[in-house]
Protein backbone atom coordinates (compact mmCIF):
# COMPACT_ATOMS: atom_id res chain seq x y z
CA UNK A 1 0.00 0.00 0.00
CA UNK A 2 2.78 2.41 0.88
CA UNK A 3 4.58 1.45 -2.34
CA UNK A 4 1.53 2.40 -4.39
CA UNK A 5 1.22 5.75 -2.63
CA UNK A 6 4.92 6.39 -3.20
CA UNK A 7 4.51 5.48 -6.90
CA UNK A 8 1.62 7.96 -7.29
CA UNK A 9 3.64 10.75 -5.68
CA UNK A 10 6.71 9.90 -7.81
CA UNK A 11 4.57 9.93 -10.96
CA UNK A 12 3.12 13.32 -10.01
CA UNK A 13 6.60 14.74 -9.43
CA UNK A 14 7.76 13.34 -12.77
CA UNK A 15 4.80 15.03 -14.47
CA UNK A 16 5.59 18.34 -12.78
CA UNK A 17 9.29 18.26 -13.67
CA UNK A 18 9.34 16.25 -16.91
CA UNK A 19 6.52 17.92 -18.86
CA UNK A 20 8.03 21.43 -18.85
CA UNK A 21 11.43 20.03 -19.85
CA UNK A 22 9.92 18.20 -22.82
CA UNK A 23 7.81 21.18 -23.83
CA UNK A 24 10.82 23.47 -23.80
CA UNK A 25 13.04 21.29 -25.98
CA UNK A 26 13.04 24.12 -28.52
CA UNK A 27 13.29 27.56 -26.97
CA UNK A 28 11.27 30.62 -27.76
CA UNK A 29 12.64 34.09 -28.13
CA UNK A 30 10.85 36.31 -25.58
CA UNK A 31 8.62 38.93 -27.19
CA UNK A 32 10.61 41.62 -25.35
CA UNK A 33 13.65 40.66 -27.45
CA UNK A 34 11.82 41.36 -30.72
CA UNK A 35 11.33 44.86 -32.11
CA UNK A 36 9.93 46.11 -35.39
CA UNK A 37 11.15 49.49 -36.63
CA UNK A 38 10.00 51.43 -39.65
CA UNK A 39 6.58 52.24 -41.04
CA UNK A 40 4.50 49.26 -42.16
CA UNK A 41 2.84 50.95 -45.12
CA UNK A 42 2.29 49.44 -48.57
CA UNK A 43 5.65 49.63 -50.35
CA UNK A 44 7.44 50.51 -47.09
CA UNK A 45 10.30 48.68 -45.42
CA UNK A 46 10.45 47.61 -41.79
CA UNK A 47 13.34 46.05 -39.91
CA UNK A 48 12.68 43.19 -37.50
CA UNK A 49 15.39 42.97 -34.82
CA UNK A 50 16.02 40.09 -32.44
CA UNK A 51 18.16 41.16 -29.45
CA UNK A 52 21.53 39.68 -28.49
CA UNK A 53 21.20 36.21 -27.02
CA UNK A 54 18.10 35.36 -29.04
CA UNK A 55 20.11 32.84 -31.07
CA UNK A 56 23.50 31.16 -30.79
CA UNK A 57 26.46 33.27 -31.98
CA UNK A 58 26.85 32.86 -35.76
CA UNK A 59 23.96 30.38 -35.96
CA UNK A 60 22.07 30.14 -39.26
CA UNK A 61 18.54 31.51 -38.81
CA UNK A 62 15.73 30.53 -41.16
CA UNK A 63 13.13 33.26 -41.77
CA UNK A 64 9.67 32.88 -43.26
CA UNK A 65 6.84 35.36 -43.70
CA UNK A 66 3.15 34.56 -44.03
CA UNK A 67 0.70 37.17 -45.28
CA UNK A 68 -1.82 38.10 -47.93
CA UNK A 69 0.83 38.90 -50.56
CA UNK A 70 4.53 38.19 -51.00
CA UNK A 71 7.15 40.38 -49.37
CA UNK A 72 10.86 40.95 -49.93
CA UNK A 73 13.20 39.74 -47.17
CA UNK A 74 16.46 41.66 -47.35
CA UNK A 75 16.86 40.93 -51.09
CA UNK A 76 14.93 37.69 -51.53
CA UNK A 77 11.26 37.68 -52.61
CA UNK A 78 9.36 35.52 -50.13
CA UNK A 79 5.83 34.17 -49.97
CA UNK A 80 5.63 31.23 -47.55
CA UNK A 81 9.26 30.48 -48.39
CA UNK A 82 12.33 30.66 -46.21
CA UNK A 83 15.46 32.78 -46.22
CA UNK A 84 18.51 31.77 -44.17
CA UNK A 85 21.04 34.20 -42.70
CA UNK A 86 23.57 33.88 -39.83
CA UNK A 87 23.10 35.59 -36.48
CA UNK A 88 25.77 38.00 -35.24
CA UNK A 89 28.58 37.04 -32.86
CA UNK A 90 26.28 38.06 -29.95
CA UNK A 91 23.30 36.04 -31.17
CA UNK A 92 21.46 39.13 -32.40
CA UNK A 93 19.64 38.95 -35.71
CA UNK A 94 17.84 41.41 -37.96
CA UNK A 95 16.09 41.26 -41.29
CA UNK A 96 14.58 43.93 -43.55
CA UNK A 97 11.07 43.28 -44.81
CA UNK A 98 9.89 45.29 -47.81
CA UNK A 99 6.13 45.20 -48.14
CA UNK A 100 4.55 45.11 -51.60
CA UNK A 101 2.67 48.14 -52.88
CA UNK A 102 -0.62 46.25 -52.48
CA UNK A 103 0.12 45.08 -48.90
CA UNK A 104 -2.89 44.71 -46.61
CA UNK A 105 -3.50 43.07 -43.27
CA UNK A 106 -0.99 41.43 -40.98
CA UNK A 107 2.19 39.57 -41.91
CA UNK A 108 3.78 37.12 -39.48
CA UNK A 109 7.55 36.75 -39.58
CA UNK A 110 8.97 33.59 -37.98
CA UNK A 111 12.73 33.25 -37.38
CA UNK A 112 14.01 29.81 -36.33
CA UNK A 113 17.57 29.05 -35.21
CA UNK A 114 18.71 25.98 -37.14
CA UNK A 115 21.00 24.78 -34.32
CA UNK A 116 19.30 25.98 -31.12
CA UNK A 117 15.73 25.59 -32.33
CA UNK A 118 14.90 28.99 -30.82
CA UNK A 119 11.81 30.45 -32.47
CA UNK A 120 11.00 34.16 -32.58
CA UNK A 121 7.96 35.75 -34.17
CA UNK A 122 6.96 39.27 -35.10
CA UNK A 123 3.67 40.62 -36.41
CA UNK A 124 3.75 43.36 -38.98
CA UNK A 125 0.39 45.08 -39.46
CA UNK A 126 0.13 47.33 -42.47
CA UNK A 127 -1.61 50.67 -42.32
CA UNK A 128 -2.56 52.98 -45.19
CA UNK A 129 0.11 55.55 -46.02
CA UNK A 130 -2.35 58.32 -45.12
CA UNK A 131 -2.45 57.11 -41.51
CA UNK A 132 1.31 56.61 -41.10
CA UNK A 133 3.20 58.70 -38.55
CA UNK A 134 5.34 61.25 -40.35
CA UNK A 135 5.55 64.07 -37.82
CA UNK A 136 6.56 62.40 -34.57
CA UNK A 137 3.06 62.47 -33.01
CA UNK A 138 0.64 59.69 -32.18
CA UNK A 139 -0.50 57.48 -35.03
CA UNK A 140 -1.76 54.03 -35.89
CA UNK A 141 1.69 53.00 -37.11
CA UNK A 142 3.95 53.55 -34.12
CA UNK A 143 7.51 53.82 -35.35
CA UNK A 144 9.12 54.77 -32.09
CA UNK A 145 8.58 58.54 -32.25
CA UNK A 146 4.92 58.66 -31.24
CA UNK A 147 2.71 57.38 -28.49
CA UNK A 148 1.74 53.73 -28.60
CA UNK A 149 -1.54 52.20 -27.51
CA UNK A 150 -1.64 51.05 -23.91
CA UNK A 151 -1.00 47.38 -23.20
CA UNK A 152 -4.35 46.16 -21.88
CA UNK A 153 -3.47 42.49 -21.60
CA UNK A 154 -1.42 40.61 -19.08
CA UNK A 155 1.54 38.46 -19.99
CA UNK A 156 2.57 35.71 -17.63
CA UNK A 157 6.03 34.24 -17.89
CA UNK A 158 5.98 30.60 -18.99
CA UNK A 159 7.63 29.61 -15.70
CA UNK A 160 4.59 30.89 -13.77
CA UNK A 161 2.24 28.93 -16.03
CA UNK A 162 4.26 25.72 -15.56
CA UNK A 163 4.41 26.24 -11.80
CA UNK A 164 0.62 26.64 -11.68
CA UNK A 165 0.03 23.56 -13.85
CA UNK A 166 2.51 21.58 -11.75
CA UNK A 167 0.79 22.63 -8.53
CA UNK A 168 -2.56 21.45 -9.93
CA UNK A 169 -1.11 18.07 -10.96
CA UNK A 170 0.63 17.65 -7.60
CA UNK A 171 -2.54 18.62 -5.70
CA UNK A 172 -4.56 16.09 -7.71
CA UNK A 173 -2.00 13.39 -7.00
CA UNK A 174 -2.09 14.13 -3.27
CA UNK A 175 -5.89 14.05 -3.15
CA UNK A 176 -5.92 10.80 -5.13
CA UNK A 177 -3.31 9.23 -2.86
CA UNK A 178 -5.19 10.23 0.30
CA UNK A 179 -8.45 8.81 -1.08
CA UNK A 180 -6.68 5.58 -2.02
CA UNK A 181 -5.12 5.22 1.46
CA UNK A 182 -8.46 5.97 3.14
CA UNK A 183 -10.20 3.27 1.06
CA UNK A 184 -7.46 0.75 1.82
CA UNK A 185 -7.77 1.40 5.58
CA UNK A 186 -11.56 1.12 5.43
CA UNK A 187 -11.35 -2.22 3.58
CA UNK A 188 -8.67 -3.67 5.85
From TrEMBL:
The chain crosses the membrane at residues 159-181. This is Sortase. Residues 1-25 form the signal peptide. It comes from Sinomonas terricola. Keywords: Membrane, Signal, Transmembrane, Transmembrane helix. The lineage of its organism: Bacteria, Bacillati, Actinomycetota, Actinomycetes, Micrococcales. It comes from the Bacteria.
Amino acid sequence: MLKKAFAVVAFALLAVVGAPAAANAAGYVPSGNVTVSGTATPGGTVTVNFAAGSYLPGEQVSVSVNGATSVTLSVVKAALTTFTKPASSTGAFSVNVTLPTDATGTYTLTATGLTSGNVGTASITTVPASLANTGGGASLANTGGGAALANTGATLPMLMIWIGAGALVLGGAIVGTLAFVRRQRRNA
